[in-house]
């Protein structure tokens, strides 16, 4: 997987060792590493959004100082990251986005549109609202997928594809093609498939397996009953049983709002930390 551009989305808490590992791996693969440092801009106190009796906004006296401190901390971390990348002699760029939460997806999407794949640092989980918007930026505003868990320098000998014939699942397989071609073994896993022409076909999974075989992938197909378990948990259990180095799955195959409120397979796989997962929509 050489000569690609990887978008590494991180925050100030991402360990130096993880950044160095990503840089060294990228240098070895002739990959261009694009680091995006996300930071949450200080929010104005709620009362600042109201109007005073004289018609002006009430801004705290120390607001400029607060904002300047945040900008300096962000700039200092950018300099540190650039120093780490320079030591690895990797082709790279560092971008900074100090913004309100709702603007994060736009910063992420802008760079995702000119990258081949994104990788999210585990430290983003410490800021769940930032992570949520970063996920939306890739999935709903760019053509690529992203990986979570594992390392930016992921190698996958055994790949587990959660397949259900949906557009999201197809997008994930397309996004994962570089890993599927290099894998020693790929399993197409269908959970509770509906064996009809309108849904998963008479023999679920065999169509995508045949297509991947044309690309030289070493593919087998398995059909699993969920056994009453939530599908996300069933995927995790079977992937671990298989010894998967990477799980590939479509994200938000159902309405995102429903999954956000009620949970869902995507949310289940996003929240777990044991298995590296590549998501696409």
From TrEMBL:
- Protein origin, superkingdom: Bacteria
Q: Which Pfam families match?
A: Usp (PF00582)
**Segments forming domain UspA:** 228-279
Q: Which family does the entry's similarity section mention?
A: Belongs to the universal stress protein A family.
What is this protein identified as? Nucleotide-binding universal stress UspA family protein
Q: What is the lineage of its organism?
A: Bacteria, Pseudomonadati, Pseudomonadota, Alphaproteobacteria, Rhodobacterales
């Amino acid at each position: 997987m050489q000569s690609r551009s990887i978008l590494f989305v991180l925050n100030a808490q991402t360990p130096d060792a993880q950044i160095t590992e990503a840089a060294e791996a990228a240098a070895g693969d002739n990959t261009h590493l694009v680091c995006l440092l996300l930071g949450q801009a200080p929010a104005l106190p709620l009362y600042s959004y109201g109007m005073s009796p004289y018609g002006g906004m009430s801004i705290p006296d120390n607001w400029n100082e607060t904002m300047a401190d945040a900008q300096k901390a962000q700039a200092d971390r950018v300099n540190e990251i650039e120093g780490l990348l320079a030591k690895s002699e990797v082709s790279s760029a560092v971008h900074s986005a100090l913004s309100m939460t709702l603007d994060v997806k736009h910063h992420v999407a802008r760079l995702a549109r000119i990258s081949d794949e994104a990788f999210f640092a585990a430290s983003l989980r410490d800021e769940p609202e930032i992570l949520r918007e970063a996920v939306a930026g890739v999935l709903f505003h760019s053509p690529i997928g992203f990986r979570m868990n594992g390392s930016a320098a992921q190698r996958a000998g055994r790949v587990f594809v959660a397949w259900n014939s949906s557009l999201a699942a197809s997008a994930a397989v397309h996004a994962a093609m570089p890993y599927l071609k290099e894998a020693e073994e790929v399993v197409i896993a269908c959970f509770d498939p509906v064996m009809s022409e309108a849904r998963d076909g008479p023999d679920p999974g065999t169509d995508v397996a045949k297509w991947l075989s044309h690309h030289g992938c070493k593919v087998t197909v398995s059909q699993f009953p969920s056994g009453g378990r939530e599908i996300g948990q069933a995927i995790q259990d079977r992937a671990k049983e298989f010894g998967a180095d990477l799980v590939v799955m479509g994200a938000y195959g159902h309405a995102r709002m429903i999954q956000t409120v009620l949970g869902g397979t995507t949310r289940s796989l996003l929240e777990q930390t044991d298995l590296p997962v590549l998501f696409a929509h």
